[in-house]
Amino acid sequence: MGTTQLESVPEPKYWHLKTVLSEALDSEFSVGEILPNERDLAARFGVARATLRQALEQLELEGRLQRRRGVGTTVAPPRVGVAVGTRRHVWPGAADDAWQLVDCVQAAPPAAVAAALETGAGETVHTVRRSRTSHGQLVATELLYVPAASVPDLTAIDAPNGPARARAVLRELQRLDLEGQDRAVELGSARADDAKDLDRLPGAPVLVVTTRFHAEGRTAALSVATYRADTCRLTFGDSPDVEIHHDPEQRAS
Amino acid sequence: MGTTQLESVPEPKYWHLKTVLSEALDSEFSVGEILPNERDLAARFGVARATLRQALEQLELEGRLQRRRGVGTTVAPPRVGVAVGTRRHVWPGAADDAWQLVDCVQAAPPAAVAAALETGAGETVHTVRRSRTSHGQLVATELLYVPAASVPDLTAIDAPNGPARARAVLRELQRLDLEGQDRAVELGSARADDAKDLDRLPGAPVLVVTTRFHAEGRTAALSVATYRADTCRLTFGDSPDVEIHHDPEQRAS
């Protein structure tokens, strides 16, 4: 990659640098390869390290680069399409569900969740923890909140906690007639424990998918799923994967 | 807000600071209020400015704070739910479409778009630019790519460019039988021109929604929409808005 003269362009310097770096990634580097260190890169392109860092941050947001502690900055593989909305109106835990059960505890949910579930202040709900793997990598963690009113026949014989309890909660949930569901996707930052599970640094950008399951005229369960934003593209619709990648450099004008 | 002793906690310092700041935002500040400057805040909480900045960045990712050039850091209003997937299988420009036409040009699309549309190298397509407003604020910009093959009856009498041309392209698109559509949501960074329209800094995190419209056994049109990630929550499903906010602090354990 040649050292392009960056002084003469009207757009922000890091933005132009990002374009040049992006082209270099395509032509000179392969997926998984470690980039030269920041000092060497900055020298090569004749820019300040602060400028270089801004450009690297953009490329990381766009999923082109991954920064991993102890490894350095590597060229990221293309994002993986993860189907979020293909099967509509299905309870969690139905056949061919993409999620794996981790455990289940009884706990008071966050205030916003309690409000949606219309549970009383401090009232505990079944909280099922699940995780989702794609191409051998953990791509999402989920907390599924199920109030006692939604699973009235859950017996004390079922294990009080853990994966067995999780299975029992999901089994009971299937008895309800699912009337509909709503989903919302928003940007969030990874909690410390999710970050650890997802192999990200705490605070890394994540995509948070909130799903409300409607039954018996109310919100019978609520799921908050946290997806890696660096490696995942969430897909909705008829086919499981949309192969188009966002290319912020090119645009009609 | 009291100055909490931050030294004794095992989690990263900025993470705990974020929790403390988040509580302070709830109890002491109102929406739109400008935060004290970084030096004063750092002194108040007895943390280094680098720690403070990390905490502020997390709160910005979560939509709690907005940083605006020339204004400072302000307390953000709750995110607005923007319906992306409620009306399924409808062509852009159908009745009660949420988007406003901006213009239309003939241009060669990005390589990934050309591949999806199966247009030849360098072949130009109708590129309709639209924008979307919610609660009086521009929340998204869109580029809708329509190959000539999808609108064969478009006449030369129609304006060659501009909003009139955009209307003509969408009118012709409605003639095709829409067989299905796929959507994908992923994290991106705002291009300089989108950033300007969306009142964000270039490179700010955005949510990129790519939609493929299927007709006549192929992808007949492709839309790339860029949503503000700081103020928007994208909703999919039966009802237009999901009122739950992600609260990364509270979790069952």
Automatic annotation (TrEMBL), chains A, B:
Source taxonomy: Bacteria, Bacillati, Actinomycetota, Actinomycetes, Kitasatosporales
Protein name (record): GntR family transcriptional regulator
Lineage top rank: taxon: Bacteria
Keyword Transcription found: yes
Gene Ontology biological-process annotations: negative regulation of DNA-templated transcription
InterPro entries, per the entry: Bact_HTH_transcr_reg, Chorismate_lyase_/UTRA_dom_sf, Tscrpt_reg_HTH_GntR, UTRA, WH-like_DNA-bd_sf, WH_DNA-bd_sf
Record's keyword terms, sorted: DNA-binding, Transcription, Transcription regulation
GO molecular-function terms, A-Z: DNA binding; DNA-binding transcription factor activity
Residues of the HTH gntR-type domain: 11-78
Pfam families: GntR, UTRA
Residues in the signal sequence: none
